[in-house]
Every structure is written in structure tokens, then in C-alpha cells.
Amino acid sequence: MPQVAITMPQLGESIAEATIVKFLVQPGDTVEVDQEIIEVETNKATMGVTTLCGGTITTFHVEEGVSYAVGTQLGIIEATEEEVQATGVSPIDSNTAAPEKNEQELIERTLSHGDNPAIAQQSQMDVPDSISIQPNVQGLPVPVGTKGANYISPRMRARMDELGLHAADISAIQGNGAGGRVTIEDLEAFLVGIEEWPKSKASPMRLAVADAMRRSWTRPLATVGMPVVLDKVLAHRREQNPKPGLTLYILRAFALALKEDPTSAGYLIGENIVHPKAFDIGVAVQVADGVVVPVIRNADAKTVPQLSAEYAELVEKARERKLGKETFEKGIATVTNFGTFGLVSGTPIPLPNETLILGLGAGVKKPVWSDEANVFIPVTTCELVITFDHRVVDGGGAGMLLQKIRDYLQQPEKL
To answer: What is the value of pTM for the model shown?
Structure first.
């Protein structure tokens, strides 16, 4: 009689696994289509696994109290030919109905490692040549809804390692494998297709930036913005000799705001938020083939005039590639002035070791209504945007941080 796999369903958009709480039926029991047979628990709720067809429970491959990835084969239902045809389910081959324990563990480990290179390498070393990965229509636990490069098989990952490729490098490839995943054949066809395209060698600087951004984007990042009036800052700047850059006013206000609320610059490690020990702020400096971020130490304790000389020296050394390693380490946040390129807004990305990055857009003259004078008056505003790790900071917290920065900028003589 045909055998139909019982698999862990996709129980929610962001749920990758569930824990077996209780079996509601036992091997040998007769079940109907859509009958709840296993109670499982996710990180959000307790739910039930239901049957795709009626029949007799042959066996369960899983245990109570253990977590299994979406798509994992949980057991087998023996159904009649008529039931299979009526429900439209796909029976599995009897030779693959009950995976061996070591193969089952391998599949589950492969599904759970995601993009972790260390675990991925372990998976590659552990894969026996004899294991044959079958399409998910025959029972392979490929996560439901997986598209493109989201799921990478051990064989595919090994080939990517040979070529020095990352998951992001193959995201543009249309996958033709089970669940829409990219196969080695898809990859090789893509590489052949671009063989004759013009190419240029990426510089070490460009590769370093790419690596940092790729690692940073593994976190849930969000961006919010707020217009800020700059007239008082610009008036104060005109009175200084030498005139400090606008970036320094922003940096100083940023450091003071973070000192008031150090949790915003905290870093999530496990179940703890590690707060900053010092308020060291990086400044993004554009160089010929990328961006470097030297760090100004204890920015909260230095006035704008005091920061000016240090900043000028750092920028000069950065552009001459003479910065020492110590100038890059352990910043808690970064300021980037993309307004120098005429950009009024943007979504900067923080470095992997930082939770925040503050971006400054170009100044724009615009009319603002004055209730006191009962007329429109011209003011210079710029857009301040902040990108943050949403695990640590929420939109409201980021908004309040921007408000504090805005308030400090209205009192430039205190900066």
C-alpha cells in the first residue's frame, strides 16, 4: 500500500522549527484526513500537526521534547490507493520511508545551520557519499517556502567554498531545484553565462567593505529619519577660527545623546545587552576604493574645537592609508556625512560590531512658517537618519535619540 510522509509543517512565516509536545495517536491507529495527530510547540504558540490523508499510522521517527526543523519527516501513514488519489498527496518510495538515524540527524543538522560557515564546514565533512538527497516531493525536509539561495545543500556549499562564493553572491540566480533552491547545475550555468562579461578585480579595500556589510546585514536593521534646523549651528560655526566641520557638531551631539541613553548603543550577546564602556564614535571617510572608519575616542568628553584638530588628522591619515589598527577598534557607533555628495537622505548600514550609524544629509534651504512673525521665513534644514539593530533598539527609541541630538544642535555653544 502507498506510504505518505508526515512532515513538520510551516507553522508561521518566521518559524523554522517546533518541539514535539505530545503524540495524539499511536502507531497502528486509523486516522482521517486533516486529523490532528501531533501537538507541537513553537516560540510563539502550541499548535497541531494534521494529516494530509486518511490511513493507518505506521511509525513515528521523532521523540517528545525534541525540536525538529520545518519539513522534517515525522512519521509515515499507510493509505489506500483510493485515498491517495482522492487527496492528491504524493506517496513516498518505500526505500526512503524510514531514514536511518545518522541520515536523519545529518538532514536536521544541515537544515539548522543556516549561513554559519563553521557549522556548514562540519556538515560538509560529515556527509557520507552514499546519502542521496531526494526532491522534497518525495519527502526531503526542505523548508516550506524556501526560494533562491535561502537553502544551500552541503554539496552546493562545498562547491561555493571551492569558488570562494557566499550566499549573497548567488542571490540573483534563479533556482530550479526542490523548493526553488539553487543547484550546482544552476550555479555552473550562471558562471558560464557571465564568462564573457567585462570584469574588474575588486581591491582588498572593496572586499573588506563587502565582508563587513554582508556580516552586518545578518541582523534586522531599520532606519528612521528626522529633519533638523541647522541655522544656529551654522551661525556658531561662522564665528569659529578655524571653522569646524558640520560633521563634528553632529558627532558631538550624538555622543552626548548616547551618554544619556547608553542602552541604545548596547550590543546584544545571547540574552544580555552589553553597554558601552566608553563613547568612542567612528567617522566614515570616503577613500579611492571604499570607506574607512577611524574612531574618535571619548567624543562625549571633548568639545567641538577640541575634536577639530584630531578629526582633521584622522581624515588626512585615512586618505593616505596611514591609519594604525588602534584607530579602527572598538567604536560603539558611526557618523557618516553623505550630504557632501549632494544626497539629502539615505539608509547607511552600521558596522557588524556596532548597533547604530547616524547619517547626515545635505543642507537644504526651505520656507518654514513662523507663528511669531506670521510669515514664512527661510531656514536651512538637513535630514538626520539613524540605522539601528532592531533587536536592541525600537523605532520609538531611535526617534527619541534623534530628538536628543536635534535638541543639542539647537545649543551649539554647549557642544
So the answer is: 0.60
